[in-house]
Amino acid sequence: MRPEKLDEATIAENLHKMEGWVRAEDGASIWKAFRFKNFVEAFGFMTEMAIVAEKLDHHPEWFNVYNRVDVTLTTHDASGLTDLDFKLATRMDKAAAGRMPDHLK
């Protein structure tokens, strides 16, 4: 079953509940920069999220350098944002919480 693209009100409501996630200029994706204590924490986060993404069959676009992981989420099949994007974003926030330095929480 193909995921359904969310309407503008639902997207705004979801983003309002999430800390640090911003919508891309084209409106088709959300983005967040995660900063971790070190490379091991960043890579551990990516490993954990790779397993979650595979289970959801929804894979992020991400970029990693040392302790930084920049994540972009969109649903290509729907040409925009769906519930899958916000589910994965929520899981990422939870996974990142214990790995981030106190001043970045």
From TrEMBL:
Lyase as UniProt keyword: yes
Gene Ontology biological process terms, A to Z: tetrahydrobiopterin biosynthetic process
SUPFAM superfamilies: PCD-like
Protein family per UniProt: Belongs to the pterin-4-alpha-carbinolamine dehydratase family.
Gene3D superfamilies, A to Z: Transcriptional coactivator/pterin dehydratase (3.30.1360.20)
Matches recorded under InterPro entries: PCD_sf (IPR036428), Pterin_deHydtase (IPR001533)
Catalytic activity: (4aS,6R)-4a-hydroxy-L-erythro-5,6,7,8-tetrahydrobiopterin = (6R)-L-erythro-6,7-dihydrobiopterin + H2O
A GO MF label: 4-alpha-hydroxytetrahydrobiopterin dehydratase activity
UniProt keyword DNA damage, yes or no: no
Keyword annotations: Lyase
The protein's name in its UniProt record: Putative pterin-4-alpha-carbinolamine dehydratase
EC number(s) given by UniProt: 4.2.1.96
